[in-house]
Amino acid sequence: MDFDTIRPILSGLIGATIAGWLAIKLAKQLPHAENQTKQRKLAKDHRHVILAANIGAGIALATGLIIYLGGILDDRDLRGLGLTMGLMAFLPSLVIVIGNFRGGTQQISDGFMAYSLAQKTPPFLLFALMFLMFCGGLWATYAFIPKQEAEQGVGGNPLPRLELQIEP
Question: What's the pTM value of the predicted model, to 2 decimals?
């Protein structure tokens, strides 16, 4: 066996080891047993919103699979991955905000905390990852705009160019 055959296995083992180490380290950041009553109340109050947010993330993942498996994008085109990741961050956030909009900012904040508890991830880590995924989605959306249209402007009319002319 050559190294190219073993490399994916080694990479997977190293990644699993790092993930296990991070899980142990970050488990200390999760809310502890003294807040069990509040956690159960948050989970009960927001269970429908969390379910809808998870369905939104599933729809985003299915969209990404359709983009690649349907042949819309080439397997090596990363725009589909960025779009999928962006949607996987944006749709749950949108569902949480819309589902808790009537209760004001405190209700929205509680909704995001309940989502974090449901994902069993520390809030700072979950929302930092979701922000990065959203930025990737913005990049992918921008990358889908053909360069020719971006240079021509809307309706094929050329965009005005500002040129600085310095006369001696």
Answer: 0.69
